[in-house]
Design goal:
single chain, 387 residues, mainly beta, 4-stranded antiparallel beta sheet, 3 helices, 43% strand, disordered N terminus
């Protein structure tokens, strides 16, 4: 019994000594460092109002597909994993039409060429009439579609999750060509659609490169690394470009999970500037700023002409801030608790915060005619206007 009591005392003493040297304190500090930042209080300098709310159906939940609506010709088009596709009036939120579907719709929608196009978790592609919601054609790609299809110049471009871009004839759904990029061993879950320019389609890839393809036949024109996938482990090497690049005139802006952003001369593929700030979400383009959110949750305002960081907003650390939208004089991101954060474009300070529901916002908000629309993982839509 004496030996047992002595051992217990010794163990208790060791525990106490570990406490003296900060063992428990270090664990607590590590735990705090990995938890989402608590929202900071601030005095609002702007006011926003909720214009309307609606449901797109049963949302993506934990699939990680980052569903978001698209706005075209005064209508908001939204899809859900269960619930089909719906069209709403941008100003009022009134439902214009609904297309029922048993498919698990995960990619899109995209709108253009008089069509609304969505993809499914099994690679089905459905094109609907934008005016009525009637089905025009169906097609198939080899893998799940979690990015919105893009339409233009008589074609529909569908990016599937195996690194393939497939071009379909917008009128008939006939496949014209496809192009494939080999995937790295480990990638960030989620990707976004390509962007179109005159004669080009630009695709951000999971290996950190940006490719320019000829629209006519999918022929590669140039391929440029935005970020180098270096590091000792596959996790270290992840460099995905998962947000749709932004094209303004002849300048293309792309951002990588490797915390790099680049401005590129689109016709030639020549780099204009590079920045060490960036992330996998869609960047937001303002008059004089490019706004990006990095993988740690910081939001950065970069000078458009040089890439120099004008400001940083670090208060959203580990809150899974997604793609950036520009809403008037503000940059807007959503987070994992359903909050929307409006930040001033001139200095990055918080201007106003509103909650769009309890569910996470993973897709980037979209803006048209002064109205911002966002979709959460439950499939709920909300529209907001700056007062």
């Amino acid at each position: 019994m004496f030996v047992v009591l002595a051992c217990v005392s010794a163990l208790a003493g060791c525990s106490t000594i570990r406490g003296w040297f900060g063992g428990d304190g270090e664990k607590a500090a590590e735990k705090r460092a990995s938890e989402p930042a608590e929202l900071v209080e601030f005095t609002p300098s702007a006011s926003v109002s909720r214009v309307w709310s609606a449901s797109a159906g049963k949302g993506e939940d934990h699939l990680g597909v980052r569903q978001a609506p698209v706005i075209a010709d005064g209508r908001v088009y939204a899809a859900a994993v269960e619930g089909g596709v719906r069209a709403f009036d941008l100003q009022t939120g009134d439902q214009v039409w609904r297309h029922e579907s048993d498919l698990r719709l995960s990619g899109g929608p995209g709108a253009g060429e008089g069509l609304v196009v969505v993809g499914s978790l099994k690679g089905e592609v459905i094109a609907l009439d934008a005016a009525t919601g009637a089905e025009r054609w169906q097609a198939q790609v080899p893998n799940e579609v979690i990015a919105p299809p893009v339409m233009g110049q008589g074609l529909v471009f569908v990016r599937s999750n195996d690194g393939r871009v497939t071009a379909f004839d917008a009128a008939s759904g006939e496949r014209r060509w496809f192009w494939t990029k080999e995937l790295p061993s480990l990638t960030v879950r989620g990707n976004d659609g390509p962007v179109l320019g005159p004669g080009f389609v630009f695709v951000g890839n999971d290996d950190g490169t940006l490719a320019a393809l000829a629209i006519a036949d999918g022929r590669p024109i140039w391929d440029l690394p935005v970020a180098q996938p270096d590091g000792r482990t596959e996790l270290d090497r992840m460099a995905d470009i998962d947000g749709t690049p932004v094209l303004d005139g002849t300048v293309l802006y792309a951002s990588s999970y490797k915390q790099a952003t680049m401005a590129i001369d689109a016709p030639s593929g020549r780099p204009i500037w590079g920045s060490e700030h960036g992330g996998s979400g869609r960047p937001g383009l303002a008059t004089d700023k490019l706004v990006v959110s990095d993988r740690n949750g910081s939001v950065w305002g970069l000078d458009r002409s040089s890439g120099t960081a004008s400001w940083q907003q670090p208060a959203l650390a580990r809150r899974n801030a997604g793609g950036v939208a520009i809403h008037g004089d503000y940059a807007v991101v959503g987070d994992f608790e359903g909050y929307l954060h409006w930040m001033r474009l001139d200095n990055g300070e918080f201007a106003v915060r509103e909650r769009a529901g309890r569910a996470a916002i993973k897709g980037a908000p979209v803006v048209a005619d002064g109205i911002l629309v966002v979709q959460n993982v439950d499939g709920d839509l909300t529209a907001w206007r700056i007062q």
